[in-house]
Structures are given as C-alpha cells and as structure tokens.
Amino acid sequence: MRERGSGGYLHHVFTYAAKQLFGEEVKELTYKTLRNKDFQEVRLERDGAVLLCFASTYGFRNIQNLVQKLKRGKSPYHFVEVMACPSGCLNGGGQVKPSSSQNQKDLLHLVEELYKAERPLLPENDTHVAKLYETWLHTLGEERAKQLLHTEYHTVEKMTNGLTIKW
User: Residue limits of the Iron hydrogenase small subunit domain (predicted)?
Assistant: First the structure.
C-alpha cells in the first residue's frame, strides 16, 4: 500500500520492471526509511542478490545528499523519484491550503490519510483508463497513444550571445 501521495510512479515502474525483467510479480512494496521519512528505498532481491534498487527522495536537503552520492559514484539506485517538496507532492505549493483553524501539519496528515484510503490500481488494470483509450484514442494500440500522449526531449543548443564574445 502506498503511504504517501508521492511515489506512485516509482511504484508502477518498480512493479513493471520486476515483472518484465525478472518475471517477479510484486504485489506490495516495502519501503526502507534511510536518513528520514523523506528518503526511502525499495529493493527486489533474489537469493541474496539485489535485482532492483529504487529510491524516493523529497525535499532539497535529501536531493542534495543524493546528488553528492551520484557525483561520487556511490549511488546503488536504478531509479530515483525526486520531489522538491518535503513529504512529497501532498505538501506542495499547489495543494489545498489549511483553513484558518487548521495548521499545515494537521492538513497534511488528513490528506495523507485520505490518500491511504484510496485503492491503488495499475493503469493497465484500470477499466476507466481502458475506456478513455477506447473513447478518446479509438484503440488500445500503442502507436496512436505514443503519438498523442508521449513526448520526447531534445538537447537545446546553447545560444551564443554576440555581446559576450571576447574580441
């Protein structure tokens, strides 16, 4: 069960990778808290060998620690979900604000409890998603979905400013 509003993408990628790469059906992820509740990891192990090692890190302090590990080549992670907001996206600037009689921590706790109560579904098993694909895309095929729903990232060449050239 997901305990926080963030981590859903990590959860999906982890379960999908476990199934596709190693034939492992992962029903529930067990997160290990590392430095604090905003830095956690989850592993898939077989016969003592680590097959997958994913992490979630929230808040700038934890992100800085992760970046330092990456720079030193000391990161064991195959995938990391990063969010700038402490406690993940349920605590982000775009979320509901507390009422005048409520403090931020109480509201965050309430929203986390509501989130925990929801039943998670994998997108490939969600009938609502399948119906949207059929209605909107008129197919469950991958090509049209890729064409309309996926994006690609390209390197943006640095522009040369004529004013900065040393003559």
Answer: 101-157
Contacts of 32 (CB under 8 A, 6+ apart): 40, 41, 42, 43
pTM: 0.66
- Alpha carbon distance 138, 117 (integer Å): 33
Give the SS3 label for residue 68: helix
Domain with CATH 3.40.950.10 in the chain: 1-100+111-120
- Architecture label for domain 1-100+111-120: 3-Layer(aba) Sandwich (3.40)
pLDDT, position 162: 63
Residue 11: alpha-carbon gap to chain centroid: 7
164 vs 152 pLDDT, higher one:
152
